[in-house]
């Protein structure tokens, strides 16, 4: 019973942190709730992916496919507050405009979006839109759920392989306190939706996810010596589009 209550709090905290759904707050938010919540990030991806797929399915009943995809993408950003897209934009701005580690971190902290970030997000959303619209309709929901779950698993993997790059802020406490057991559980949840896809597509999606994780980790280590919350959002977005493209290429 204690285990169920503890993990229930962690899942609820994860939904509070990683979505913008109107959920009641926990009566008392404990520090351990935050670190435990991070391990459930891929599960939140399953939920967000299912909501996105549901919006697409409903819209596709009465609207052209491309319009339905656009509404589904908009719904996904509404569900999450576009926090991952925002992180991707900040990384584009910081790594594009900064020459030193300190300058990159400074730019990434700026709430304004620059040219690199704007162009990056436009290209990212355009690729997602085209890839989803071109997927076989019968498998689109499964691909979307897998992409959201597995890409968050890639971002979770960054927290296991790199230190936090900033010396201040609560994200350092929340993201770096994830135990090995929780990372393993998160990996299982992230991988589970792949079972909905054909074998060749599973292999391709897993391969590009590992490549996205490894590439981002090496890049962040080289430029920053670690990661920030924006880096996690960028990793999730890179992995998500890579998974969509891998599925499109193999279905």
From TrEMBL:
Names of the cofactor(s): Mg(2+)
Gene Ontology molecular function: any one: adenosylcobinamide-GDP ribazoletransferase activity
Keyword Cell membrane belongs to the record: yes
Superkingdom to which the source organism belongs: Bacteria
EC number: 2.7.8.26
Main location: membrane
Membrane topology (UniProt): Multi-pass membrane protein
Name of the protein described by the UniProt record: Adenosylcobinamide-GDP ribazoletransferase
Originating species: Rhodopila globiformis (Rhodopseudomonas globiformis)
């Amino acid at each position: 019973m204690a285990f169920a209550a503890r993990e229930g709090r962690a899942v609820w905290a994860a939904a509070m942190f990683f979505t913008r759904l109107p959920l009641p707050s926990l009566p008392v938010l404990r520090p351990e709730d935050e670190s435990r919540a991070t391990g459930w990030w891929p599960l939140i991806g399953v939920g967000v992916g299912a909501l996105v797929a549901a919006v697409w399915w409903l819209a596709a009943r009465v609207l052209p496919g491309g319009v339905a995809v656009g509404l589904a993408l908009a719904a996904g950003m509404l569900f999450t507050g576009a926090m991952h897209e925002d992180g991707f934009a900040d990384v584009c701005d910081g790594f594009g405009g900064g020459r030193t580690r300190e300058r990159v971190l400074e730019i990434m902290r700026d709430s304004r979006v620059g040219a690199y970030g704007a162009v990056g997000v436009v290209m990212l959303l355009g690729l997602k839109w085209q890839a989803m619209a071109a997927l076989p309709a019968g498998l689109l929901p499964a691909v979307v759920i897998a992409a959201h779950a597995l890409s968050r698993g890639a971002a979770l993997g960054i927290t296991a392989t790199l230190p936090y790059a900033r010396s201040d802020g609560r994200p350092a406490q929340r993201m770096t306190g994830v135990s090995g057991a929780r990372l393993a559980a998160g990996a299982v949840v992230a991988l589970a939706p792949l079972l909905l896809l054909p074998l060749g597509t599973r292999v391709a999606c897993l391969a590009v996810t590992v490549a996205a994780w490894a590439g981002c980790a090496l890049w962040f280590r080289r430029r920053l010596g670690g990661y920030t919350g924006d880096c996690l959002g960028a990793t999730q977005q890179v992995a998500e589009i890579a998974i969509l493209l891998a599925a499109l290429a193999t279905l």
